[in-house]
Design brief:
The chain is an alpha/beta fold. It has 10 helices and 14 strands. The strands form 4 sheets. A 5-stranded parallel sheet has the order 4-1-9-10-11, sandwiched between helices. It binds alpha-D-ribofuranose.
């Protein structure tokens, strides 16, 4: 099978990290250790993760016509992410994420900015060009109306639709039915599935489709016969930011190459294990050679 084309429709942010040994309580000031910026946004992260691993990737999304624009456009070109359809919006800032990093875990507040303009109007504008792609990668960091508009169209065209339901919100069953793969983490799983019942029962309801990432506990899915757990590699984590995005981006590349589902998940776990060993969302994302090393070791 030849490699299929990937379209990511999603958010683009600049990430502002502050790192501290202790998180402040309300009303308290603490002195941190480190401040840094990185490229972020779940859509952009997944696009870059997929492109670094050899995917043929186009990113659909919105940025502001602001001081970040030039840097972002250069960045996507360097990363070989096609941005021909990017929406540059006047009078609003590019999305921003404020990330507190502590003991390798994060807390994130996002200000959507231009991402709000990846809306139903934009979805309608891009819908004609989308038929040229095969695999679609979506998240929930742009307006839900965009997904509600696009998913039924893509489903009608028999496209492969991968939905990473982050940040989590309850989704209606009709939309979920049209998705090919759903990749929540444990927290997103309980929100999106509205705490239906035990994870094993819910996995069984969506065999070979619902893929739950559980951090160092690996990835769980139901293969039609039983629940399967693909273990995570044991590594020294310094920052989990973007690990889920790296998993989904890598998983998508493997899907676009027609690999069996277990291999796609395995590949995603290898990529995610490398991403947590470096700080930042996109800064930590691996290249194919690094994954080849892991495969060689095993
Ligand atoms: O998933 C990590 C991402 O969430 C960060 O890059 C930040 O921008 C937020 O979108």
């Amino acid at each position: 099978m030849t490699m299929q084309r990937i379209a990511v429709v999603g958010s683009i942010n600049i990430d502002y990290f502050v790192e501290s040994k202790r998180l402040p309580k309300f009303g308290e000031t603490v002195t941190g250790e480190n401040f840094f910026m990185d490229f972020g946004g779940k859509g952009a992260n997944q696009a870059v993760a997929a492109a670094r691993l050899g995917g043929d990737v186009t990113l659909f999304g919105s940025i502001g016509n602001d001081e970040q624009k030039g840097v972002l456009l250069d960045h996507f070109r360097n990363e070989k992410v096609n941005i021909d359809h990017l929406n540059v919006v006047e009078g609003i800032s590019t999305g921003a994420a404020f990330i507190q990093l502590h003991n390798s875990e994060n807390r994130i507040i996002i200000i959507p900015g231009a991402n709000q303009f990846s809306n139903a109007i934009y979805a309608e504008q891009i819908s004609k060009s989308l038929v040229n792609y095969d695999v679609f990668l979506l998240q929930l960091e742009i307006p839900l109306e965009t997904l509600e508009y696009l998913i039924p169209i893509l489903y009608e065209h028999n496209k492969t639709i991968i939905l990473d339901p982050a940040p989590a919100q309850v989704l209606n069953e009709e939309l979920l039915e049209k998705v090919t793969y759903l990749t929540p983490n444990e927290h997103e799983f309980s929100v999106v599935m509205n705490k239906q019942s035990e994870m094993a029962n819910v996995l069984k309801k969506y065999p070979n489709k619902l893929i739950v990432t559980c951090g160092k506990d690996g990835v769980k899915f139901h293969n039609g016969e039983k629940v399967v757990n693909i273990p995570a590699r044991k590594v020294q984590a310094v920052d989990s930011t973007g690990a889920g995005d790296t998993f989904t981006g890598a998983f998508t590349v493997a899907v676009s190459k027609g690999k069996p589902l277990v291999e796609c998940i395995q590949y995603g776990t290898y990529a995610a294990s490398l991403s947590v060993m470096k700080k930042g969302a996109q800064s930590g994302m691996p290249y194919q050679e690094e994954i080849d090393e892991i495969i060689k070791e095993r």
